Amino acid sequence: MVMEGAEDWSSGVLCCVDTNRDDGSRCGDSSVKGPLTHQALLYGSEEEFLAATIPFIHQGLEHDEQVQITTTDRNAGWLQAALGATAEQVTFRASSQCYRHPVRALAAKYRTAHPVNRDEQRQRRLRIIGEPWWTARTAPEAKEWARYESLVNAALAGANVALLCTYDTNAVEEQVINQVARTHPELVECGQVRPSAHYSDPAAFNSECNASPLAELPAPALWLRFSRTEQLATLRDFVTSQAGRVGANSRSVGPFVQAVDEVATNAIKHGGGSGVLQIWTGPQTVLCEVSDTGAGLPDPLAGQLPYPPGQLRGCGLWLARQFSDLLEVHSDPAGTTVRLHLTVS
Known about the structure:
Layout: E1 2-4, H1 7-10, E2 37-43, H2 46-62, E3 66-71, H3 73-83, E4 91-94, H4 95-98, H5 102-113, E5 126-130, H6 139-155, E6 161-168, H7 174-183, E7 186-189, E8 192-195, H8 202-211, E9 222-226, H9 232-245, H10 250-270, E10 275-282, E11 285-291, H11 316-323, E12 326-332, E13 335-343
Parallel strand pairs: 1-4, 2-6, 2-7, 3-4, 3-5, 5-6
Antiparallel strand pairs: 7-8, 9-10, 10-11, 11-13, 12-13
Helix pairs in contact: 2-3, 5-6, 6-7, 6-8, 9-10, 10-11
């Protein structure tokens, strides 16, 4: 048994993904080697959890596949006891460490799912059991984790990977359970795999997320209207100053200011030529909102998926998502609003 930390799955990475892939792949029996399978298991007891996960693990080991398990300490204990000596052939990670940030987790999972040499296909199929960490999620955070599950289908399309996402019905809210069928092409019920009748294409799902309203906020502590790139230096100073007031250190402030700058730059270049920055501060928190009056995001997956290493243009929103603790978007034909959150630990 290998116990690993969060390094491989929690750090951001820029990598390429073809969102227009049309290779005819579809999810099927998890024991079949081939393109991506993405399944969800809703369980309410140890027995239900093990009834689905143990065969999933054994199928992978029988086919000499790499098996990785990212779950809670409790579930890891269940699996180790049930697997016995076989647990030594499996890599375990803690869900509380690997599922800390949806965008960084997506980037890291993409890196894990693809070989270092991009000219070669992964020879050994990768089999992953994951338990998204839902404890103490706010509504905005829950929405972004639902996006994550949907985006996995686009980011890993065609990858030689089998994913089984497990959800404890005693620990997650009903709203989360309802989203599972929309973000997973297949469901595991009573030991059987069946297509999800409510599955939504990632573009359609994210378009719906983008159109949903953001929560109302009180009057901001500070606001700035901008329409020229020369004004962005002042914008960065404003954000840096407000973050410093709540005790943020330079290590976290620098990337966050860059994130706000990237979004503001997009507002000038693609959002009608101008925008408004608003800033709120609270105990150990900074929230920046950038809004524009452009025509909205033309692509619902804009900024949601990894980019090629070294690419410097066109990836501002993707960078902003990684450099913020949480990024929310509302976009419609009247404009786009982006909220970026920084939490000071």
